[in-house]
Every structure is written in structure tokens, then in C-alpha cells.
UniProtKB/TrEMBL annotation:
<dbReference type="InterPro" id="IPR002843">
    <property type="entry name" value="ATPase_V0-cplx_csu/dsu"/>
</dbReference>
<dbReference type="InterPro" id="IPR050873">
    <property type="entry name" value="V-ATPase_V0D/AC39_subunit"/>
</dbReference>
<dbReference type="Pfam" id="PF01992">
    <property type="entry name" value="vATP-synt_AC39"/>
</dbReference>
<dbReference type="InterPro" id="IPR044911">
    <property type="entry name" value="V-type_ATPase_csu/dsu_dom_3"/>
</dbReference>
<protein>
    <submittedName>
        <fullName>V/A-type H+-transporting ATPase subunit C</fullName>
    </submittedName>
</protein>
<dbReference type="InterPro" id="IPR035067">
    <property type="entry name" value="V-type_ATPase_csu/dsu"/>
</dbReference>
<keyword id="KW-0813">Transport</keyword>
<keyword id="KW-0406">Ion transport</keyword>
<comment type="similarity">
    <text>Belongs to the V-ATPase V0D/AC39 subunit family.</text>
</comment>
<dbReference type="InterPro" id="IPR036079">
    <property type="entry name" value="ATPase_csu/dsu_sf"/>
</dbReference>
<dbReference type="GO" id="GO:0046961">
    <property type="term" value="F:proton-transporting ATPase activity, rotational mechanism"/>
</dbReference>
């Protein structure tokens, strides 16, 4: 990638960054008395257009999904290189593959679960899949689909569909990041894989799963090698922390493990992961030429939308402002 090609895109992205929600705005929403009051505050932001269309305040998901679609459409115009956007939309392709395969194998209608964001025209992929024309589907997706179908024919276990497609997704994602030769993108993917692998290890330990299952579930491409994780399968959390204390993500990882040890819940672990990945992107604020600011703006926007979802769900369920503050993620601004 030629960094100078992104000059105009970075200029436009700096303007968009100024419209991201501030800490003060997030705090006002957290302290709001009701979901209606949250919508009033949204009316003062770039969400105003979508928020004004909603008659039922509890239909907030439509506002959030429409905003996310708008942002991705806009950033595809901003970026001269589609791969920068594909790095973040690829997960939606694989989400849709999961839904598509489960519909066919389980003979159920999951059409409400499809997402209209992705790197490909998913309607076309689904059409080719249902017509048996796998050879016309992009190679990475074709291989993933065939692997899942072969496994399901033997196992008849729907849970394995997610596990196998996750493995193909992260393999695809890592290759996409490596092809860009942008250190931030590679680090982002490798560090995310490490967090997910540790989280998977904890879940499998909790379920009493054996080494064979764990070998299948561990994703390739992280900095923490598979064998190091396998060696923690029978460890206590303290022993696990000792073995994982010297990796890139260790500062946040250990905090997440400490929290899990106290609460037996992975909620805080996931928050530490999200905050780590956000902080990794903050160096993009100081880059003038290159794709990083475009990528990081989208990460910031996705995190902002995640925070709004946390606030909306919490208001719907009567969660206290103090508890909401513990759940919201770090901001880019």
C-alpha cells in the first residue's frame, strides 16, 4: 500500500472523528433516567437522523444497525483500498455463512439473523450455495463451507459449525492483514486471536473438555502458541496467569483473568480485551499518511455502537448507572 494514496481519506476521517460521541455524552446517557432520555441525547449527535425515525424507543437495534451500515458505506467511499474495510467487515461474511449453513442443515428459517454488511454480495453467495454451485464461490468461503458440511455429515453437531467457521474466519483474516504489511493490522488480528484463545481455554476448562477438543478449538495465528495454551488446560487460574505473563497482551490479559477468578464470569475479561484493542488503535491519531486512521475510526465507531447497545439494554432492564459504567468500553476520543 502506498501511504500517500490515503491522504484525502485521512483528511475526511479526521472530520468524522470529531463527531464521535464524547465521554461527557456517554456519561449523560448512562445517568439518564430512561431510554427515552437516551434518545433525546442521541438527537444532539450524528445519530439524530436515525433516532428521529423510531417511534418505539425499544426498537433501538434498528438505529444502531442502520448507523453501522451507513458508516461502512461511507468508509468504502473514503478508503482507496477495500482491504482496509474488508478487515473489519469479514466477520459479517462468516456470520452469514454460519446462518446460511444452519438454515440448510437444520431445515429452519434463520433469515432474521442475516446481516447486510460484508465484503461480498451475500445474496449471491447464498444463491450459489443453495444451487450447489460451490465452485463459483470465493475460494476461502468454498473451503470453509465444504469443511463444515463434511464435518456435520459425520457429527450432526450444530455447535461445531461455529467452531469450524471461526477457524476459517481467523485464518482468512490473518492472511488479509498480513497481505497489507501494515503492522497495526497484523498486531490487531494476532492480539485478538490470543485473547479469544485464552477465553476459549477458560470455557473448555469450565466444561471439563479434553485436550482433543481444545486442540480443535484453538485458533491459529496468535502470538501464544497452541502448545503453551494446551499446557494450561489442567491449571488453576493462578497457574495459568503465571504461564501467560510474558506476552504482548499480558498486562490486560492478567487483569481479565484476575477478574474471572473473582467473579467466575467472562464479562470483565471481554471488556479488558476490547479496551486493549481500542488502545492499540489510538496511535492512529498521530498518523498523517496511511490507512491506519481509517481502520481505527471504524473500530472506534463499532465500539461506540457497542457502548450504546450496552446502555440501551441496561436502561431496558433497570441496571444502575454505576453498573453500566463498569460495562462500557474505552473510547477512541
Amino acid at each position: 500500500m502506498d501511504r500517500m494514496d490515503f491522504t484525502q481519506g485521512v483528511v475526511r476521517t479526521r472530520v468524522l472523528e470529531k463527531r464521535l460521541l464524547s465521554r461527557a455524552q456517554i456519561d449523560r446517557m448512562i445517568d439518564a433516567d430512561s431510554i427515552e432520555d437516551v434518545f433525546r441525547i442521541l438527537g444532539e449527535t450524528e445519530y439524530a437522523g436515525e433516532a428521529s425515525k423510531v417511534k418505539d424507543f425499544y426498537n433501538y437495534e434498528k438505529v444502531l444497525s442502520n448507523e453501522l451500515s451507513r458508516v461502512y458505506d461511507l468508509m468504502r467511499e473514503v478508503s482507496v483500498e477495500p482491504k482496509v474495510i474488508d478487515l473489519l467487515t469479514l466477520k459479517y461474511d462468516y456470520h452469514n455463512l454460519k446462518v446460511m449453513i444452519k438454515e440448510k442443515e437444520l431445515n429452519e428459517d434463520f433469515s432474521y439473523l442475516y446481516l447486510n454488511i460484508g465484503t461480498e454480495d451475500f445474496n449471491e453467495i447464498k444463491k450459489l450455495f443453495l444451487n450447489g454451485n460451490l465452485s463459483e464461490i470465493k475460494k476461502e468461503y468454498q473451503e470453509a463451507i465444504e469443511a463444515v458440511q463434511k464435518d456435520f455429515a459425520k457429527s450432526k453437531d450444530p455447535g461445531r459449525i461455529d467452531m469450524i467457521l471461526d477457524r476459517y474466519y481467523f485464518k482468512h483474516l490473518y492472511q488479509l492483514a498480513a497481505d497489507t504489511k501494515i503492522p497495526l493490522f497484523v498486531d490487531y488480528v494476532k492480539d485478538m486471536i490470543d485473547f479469544i484463545n485464552v477465553k476459549t481455554t477458560i470455557r473448555l476448562k469450565r466444561q471439563g473438555r479434553n485436550r482433543n477438543i481444545m486442540e480443535e478449538a484453538i485458533l491459529p495465528g496468535g502470538n501464544i502458541d497452541k502448545e503453551s495454551l494446551l499446557l494450561t488446560l489442567n491449571d488453576s487460574i493462578d497457574e495459568m496467569m503465571q504461564k501467560l505473563k510474558d506476552y504482548r497482551i499480558s498486562s490486560s490479559l492478567l487483569k481479565g483473568l484476575e477478574s474471572y477468578e473473582k467473579t467466575n464470569r467472562l464479562t470483565d475479561f471481554e471488556k479488558y480485551m476490547d479496551d486493549y484493542l481500542m488502545n492499540l488503535n489510538k496511535s492512529s491519531k498521530y498518523i498523517t499518511f496511511g490507512p491506519e486512521p481509517i481502520f481505527s475510526y471504524i473500530v472506534a465507531k463499532e465500539t461506540e455502537i457497542k457502548n450504546l447497545r450496552i446502555i440501551m439494554v441496561s436502561k431496558t432492564n433497570g441496571i444502575s448507572p454505576e453498573a453500566i459504567r463498569e460495562r462500557v468500553r474505552d473510547l477512541y476520543v
